[in-house]
Design a protein that fits this description.
With 316 residues, the protein is an alpha+beta fold. It has helices at residues 78-87, 127-133, 151-154, 175-184, 191-197, 250-253, 265-281; strands at 45-50, 53-58, 61-66, 94-99, 102-106, 109-113, 143-145, 170-172, 209-211, 214-218, 227-233, 236-240, 285-287, 296-302, 305-310. The strands form three sheets. Strands 9-10-11-12-13-14-15 form a seven-stranded mixed β-sheet. The longest helix is centred in the C-terminal third of the chain and has 17 residues, at 265-281. The relative contact order is 0.19. The model is unreliable at 1-40 (pLDDT under 50).
Length: 316
């Protein structure tokens, strides 16, 4: 397990594994203002309806991991992984992991769940442009909810100059994750990012109600304080699963396989299996931040296992 503020795979070698993001701060706008112009159609945004709530998948980029390289892939049983991907129609030998934070308009709050990689780790750094395409300026974001403190989830919190990308936002993560992040920041080379965000961080107790419609859900195994987020409106619920699962193929069809990016493999396996059982036995909708864009769908029981069934994407 690599330190916090860093994706848990030292061998990825996609670029600098951690560092501050590449986004520039924006002109100051009062939090929650809705004065942004109407959003143009963009392939990097997709509307997500949760009851009466408006949400939007906002693309940041993609992590591409060679499936056959045991030093770069978190699944070291490379022959089995390659065979599974091929059977699922992935023929380029690559594990494609999308990165799409979720934007949620919750009453007067403009909530962003995770902040992307900020252009680090070989990613495209599209988040700010995607937010604008969804009609939101970074300065309008009131809350940033962090699932965990790895680089592809916190790298976009600050720019290369150390200034906050979301200057009016409170940054929330679980108290155990914040402790973990602080302890590992210096070793991960993320001291500047830690200094930039510390005045804005408000830790919460695991399982807390963090906004009127969003509740944190502890999902053990990936990092010490890893949180999912359940968004509820009426009878509709969408569960943002963070890095409880990475691949919509491997993590779903073979949840028992060890993932080297998890800090506690046994707990992570139990979490994945629980999510699959829960998702397939009811009406629980799932948001996979690393699943193929836009990441919304359900788990379905098939034969002696499970598969991912995406919903049809909708443009805002």
């Amino acid at each position: 397990m690599t330190p916090s503020f860093k994706i848990a795979a030292a061998g990825l070698m996609l670029a600098t594994l951690m560092g501050v993001g590449a986004c520039s701060p924006e002109a100051q706008t009062a939090p929650g203002d809705r004065a942004a112009p109407a959003a143009p159609v963009s392939p990097d945004v997709s509307a997500v309806r949760i009851g009466t709530l408006e949400a939007t998948a906002v693309r940041d980029g993609t992590l591409n991991v060679p499936a056959g390289n045991a030093e770069m892939s978190p699944w070291t049983n490379t022959a089995e992984v390659s065979a599974l991907l091929t059977a699922a129609g992935v023929t380029d030998g690559t594990i494609h992991l999308s990165i799409q934070p979720l934007l949620v308009r919750d009453g007067e709050r403009v909530v962003l769940i995770d902040a992307g990689a900020g252009g680090q780790m070989g990613t495209e750094g599209k988040l700010v442009a995607s937010l604008r395409a969804a009609g939101v300026e970074p300065s309008q974001v009131t809350d940033v909810l962090i699932s965990h403190a790895h680089g592809d989830h916190v790298g976009g919190l600050a720019g290369a100059d150390g200034r906050l990308t979301f200057p009016n936002a409170v940054i929330r993560m679980s108290a155990p994750e914040w402790t973990f992040a602080q302890a590992g920041a210096a070793e991960a080379g993320a001291g500047a990012l830690l200094a930039a965000i510390t005045p804005k961080v408000e830790p919460f107790a695991p399982g807390a109600q963090v906004t009127p419609s969003i509740r944190a859900v502890p999902l053990a195994g990936h990092t010490p304080g890893h949180s999912g987020y359940e968004i509820e409106s009426g009878d509709d619920r969408l569960l943002y699963i963070g890095d409880a699962m990475h691949s919509s193929i491997i993590s779903v069809q073979r949840p028992e396989w060890r993932n080297a990016w998890d800090s506690d493999s046994a707990a992570a396996v139990t979490t994945r299996q629980g999510l699959l059982e829960r998702g397939a036995s009811g009406t629980q909708r799932i948001y996979g931040v690393h699943f193929p864009f836009p990441g919304v769908g359900r788990f379905q029981r098939r034969d002696d296992g499970f598969v991912w069934v995406p919903e049809a994407p909708h443009q805002p």
